[in-house]
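Work Package 3 (structural annotation) set out to generate three-dimensional models for the target panel prioritized at the project kickoff. During this period the team completed the workflow that converts sequence records into discrete structure tokens, so that structures can be stored uniformly alongside our sequence database. As a representative example, we reproduce one entry of 237 residues exactly as it appears in the project archive.
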Amino acid sequence: MLTTLTVVRYPPWMGWAGFLSMALFRIPLWFRRSIPFWKLMGSGRNGTFSKMPDWRQWAVLMVHQNAVQMEKDMPAFFNKWWLVFHCEKWTLTMEAIEGHGLWDGLPAFGELPRQSNYEGPVGILTRATIRLAKLKSFWSHVDGVAANMADARGLVTSLGIGEAPWIKQATFSIWESRDAMKDFAYRMKEHAEVIRKTKADNWYSEEMFIRFRILHSEGSLQGKLPFQIKPYFAEAL
């Protein structure tokens, strides 16, 4: 299976159109039986979990059965909508290679091994449903991680995305290598503390961690292409 993540950014004062799209876009997706899993999401104001939404930026995540079906899955209405509102659009095509956890009770990206031997640039999706009783504790630890993530060695870019403010949160990030990601995750003390607290205090009612091999990246976000596959890497595919 393949996964596409499309992130769109509306012009100033057009965030209302992005908010409206989250209701309208559900209709054609409900009738797309070929798509095993999809999510419409908003974005946080920084590159990780965030309490403050970015009303101009929205995301569509879809899982596709294969490359041929992927070309048919995106409703034409979406691209027309984004064109009318002069949106920037960045689309990633990816293959889930390893991970664990559930999303709405489903193995959204198929049955995956916990580890693989892939060593190239890697996309990371971390998402969780936070228990209501643990919201205060969770959010009190997030700011330290967000402040340090932007300067982490090997980080290419990151996005805070989610289905519902405060409760259903996700981060998607791209790293130059698996080692760079692990260096941040386990050696940066604020992040290591969050990992420890997650387990000790049982913050989440559901969580998921997925690593992706990025196959294609196109478009722009805030005036630039956030990730470009190097020629030698593209040839290896």
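The domain at 2-236 is CATH 3.30.70.100 (Alpha-Beta Plaits).
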